[in-house]
Amino acid sequence: MIPKLVRLSRSAPKDRNTAWDSYWARITATGPGGEVLWDSGNDHEFLGYKDSLLRHLDPGLPVVDTGCGHGSFTRALAGIFPRVVGVDVSPHAVAKARAGSAGTANMTFEARDMTAEGAGAALAQSIGAEDAGANVFIRGVLHVLDPAHQAALVENLRALAGRRGTVFMAETNFQGNAVEYVSHLGATTKAIPAPLELAIRGLPMPGHFGPLERDRAFPASSWELLEDGHVTIETNPATGVPGQDQVPGYFAVVRPRR
């Protein structure tokens, strides 16, 4: 299995931003039966977050879906909050999100690298949130970033959250190695599910993000932890085998100390 994974992953672009935009440029189908590995095609996972989101996020502020991809969670957020902004590093992802959200008045999208210096303050100004701030929703972004890019993202989230904003995160927290992870998702020595192979071929190798990683990235000296716990991250049910589309995950709600 390891030689096959190494061979497939060699084709991934070395530049992270290029890799993500190239990946989304190749995607032709999302939702049930689609090509996106982390798209379950239903709202079951999101409904598990709903109570926490409504409990902690100020509805008077916009919600920024950071790393929105094709916008499935952005659309779910727009169903419970008055204003939602989807942001992704990939212009092709943003184009797909806009196409899938046409006619929804309380939702907009921007292509922006949220690990770039000053991106949080610039986005806050762009959406009129430079005073009170904005809420942030992140699902499945931090675990694919190295520590340096995590730190850069968190710095921008602090600027974006401003005086009143809160950050909700949900991340993959699978503790095994790369072979155990892809095996959990249905890969065998004979075959790899198509959505998984597409991700291996085109994207950086993911890690995991749990309480220890959150404590490092969002230190208690700068961030107040409001709530956290275990969740299940739901992926594309490509194999049809029960359980292979569910990955152990972690969620947390944090707020900058003012």
From TrEMBL:
Known Gene3D superfamilies for this protein?
Answer: Vaccinia Virus protein VP39
Q: Where is the Methyltransferase domain?
A: 63-158
**Among its keywords, does the record have Methyltransferase?**
yes
Instruction: Report which superkingdom the organism of origin falls in.
Output: Bacteria
Per UniProt, which keywords does this protein have? Methyltransferase, Transferase
For biological process, the GO terms are: methylation
Molecular function terms, GO-annotated: methyltransferase activity
Look up keyword Transferase and say if it applies. yes
Q: What is this protein called?
A: Methyltransferase type 12
Q: Which organism is it from?
A: Pseudarthrobacter phenanthrenivorans (Arthrobacter phenanthrenivorans)
